[in-house]
Amino acid sequence: MHDQTPCIDFSRCESVYVPLAESIRRLIDLSIRTEAGPAAVAAAKARIDSAADELSERLHPGPVGVRQLPDGQTIAWGNAVVGLRNPVAPPLVIHHEPNGLVWSDFVLGAAYEGPPGNVHGGVCALVLDHVLGATTHRPGRPAYTGTLTLRYRRPTPLGQPLRAEAHVERTEGVKMFAVGHLADADGVTVEAEGIFIHPRQRPG
Amino acid sequence: MHDQTPCIDFSRCESVYVPLAESIRRLIDLSIRTEAGPAAVAAAKARIDSAADELSERLHPGPVGVRQLPDGQTIAWGNAVVGLRNPVAPPLVIHHEPNGLVWSDFVLGAAYEGPPGNVHGGVCALVLDHVLGATTHRPGRPAYTGTLTLRYRRPTPLGQPLRAEAHVERTEGVKMFAVGHLADADGVTVEAEGIFIHPRQRPG
Lengths: 204, 204
What we know:
2 copies of one chain form a homodimer.
Chain A: H1 10-33, H2 38-55, E1 67-68, E2 74-75, E3 95-96, E4 102-106, H3 121-134, E5 144-152, E6 162-172, E7 175-184, E8 187-197
Antiparallel strand pairs in A: 1-2, 3-4, 4-6, 5-8, 6-7, 7-8
């Protein structure tokens, strides 16, 4: 019998589900890179399917969305870029400086490949959309992407330290204009600019 | 003892590694949505770690890149959008029509979430970068993204049928101008245009 107590406490959720996602991130990388033979792969797959059956016993019916913590803070557990419970997310840790600069340092592995040995151009777009958008978020008021333009200056390498950073250039009513870039140790690889929109507050 | 024969035959690779990636895709979704208690999660994690150890015994040293098949065709096993061995990839199946139209039908689940219930704007960019780029690929001559511009018209829903499509609007030397969009049953959600570049052929 397994403990079936629902996980409603943040620190407990963090200690239970975050390590699970980390284990699955390792598995994703291995899925691409393993050269194990058919029998070893079949044995591993059987264990994975068994683990999945166990995790399926109690399921949230849809995507997780943004959860509010008892202290009023929100957390996007399932977010495709920063979600700590989402193994697809690298996950990026986003830093906000007092002067408005937003930045994140990370390394992208085999799961984010496009051109051989390099980060998929669309993954660069995914990261930059998120980091530019993060410059415009206000507590309880998420911003949505209006337009996003990316200029690819050179390939972005897999397996090497990368930094994404962005700041708001100007604001016009509900529109915020953000600029930023992705860089490796040799400098900028992709430049981005975006217009982000704060939708009107919903009543209630 | 497990069979450790390397997998060099395409159909055998497909039958061995593709089902593994599919099992891991299911696990990714469950990682986000499970409400299993701490003991059940710990048991599942132990099985996952054991599977990972087994898959680690023989590893390709880096990302997989593009592999050439004996018949000269290429396959991007690890690609972040279409890679059949990459659990991060939905994976999209890309169709090429004789008139140049490229399209793909797919559904994105909880792992691709941005705003609650909707596809992350950056994931829309990831998919559109790939589908626009696919209009410009020529056998043995991959195209690289030069610029990409996205206009977000409304949210793109998770869990519902989506279509991405694109075509080349015009070509100028090494530059190809592609346009396309992402749509749900009610019409276009995101529009995209991109400039893709064919690098000069490398000797050899």
